[in-house]
Write a structure and sequence with these properties.
The chain is mainly alpha-helical. Helix 2 packs antiparallel against helix 7 and helix 2 packs antiparallel against helix 9.
Amino acid sequence: NRHAFVAELVDDRRDLPNAIAMNSAIFNSARLIGPSMAGILVAAIGEGLCFLINAVSFLAVIVSLKAMRMKKRRKPAKIEKGDVKKELIEGFHYTFGHKTMRLILIHFALVSMLGTSFSVLLPVIARDILRGDATLLGFLTGAMGCGALISAVFMARRHRVQGLEKLAGFASTLFGLALITLALSRQAAVSVGTMVLVGMGMIAQMVTSNTYLHLTVDDDKRARVMAFYLLAYFASMPLGSLLTGSLAEVIGAHPKVLSEPAPA
């Protein structure tokens, strides 16, 4: 559970907000920047060498793990049979019994399901709406990656906990408005520019949710709370993609078809 592990790497607790924001920013922005870089590499050197580069890149992860020097901690007592279920139930009550945590997770799950899943329609938008090709799709995803990187740097530089709730609301609003603009746009340049804002809003919303949960949870409950956070994303994202694809099949990928009869 890498997200819960971050707090153990920081000696000075005053640096914890910055470390958590940086970890979340790297985790989420890499999901956007990585595919953009992969698309460029596939076009330049082919799929085979991409797999080789990907395999070699794991060496950096192994070296980083080996370089870590952790303080010795007292080993927890051996978990008896039935304790796992008990701890899971306690974690659920702890997470959803806290009003702000509950709202943050619900908000995060809804944004992931109804907003983040838009990416499944990007190829359709690039080809059918903007009349472009794979190059335009690369520009769209690349622009989103640039926005994600800008947002990641901004969030990683924050040291204060105050104002995270408002920032999460602002980021979600920016994300939603940018998606509406993308849906209405028929100009490639406008769509590419809008994708920068999409990336900024999406990453900022994810990072603020992650950071707030980390900073408000008790240390002994952190792993369980972060498990619910990841569940909110990994469960809602596929459902949102299925919903988005199904709706696009019925009403089309562009809002203009809402005024037309649905296809038989």
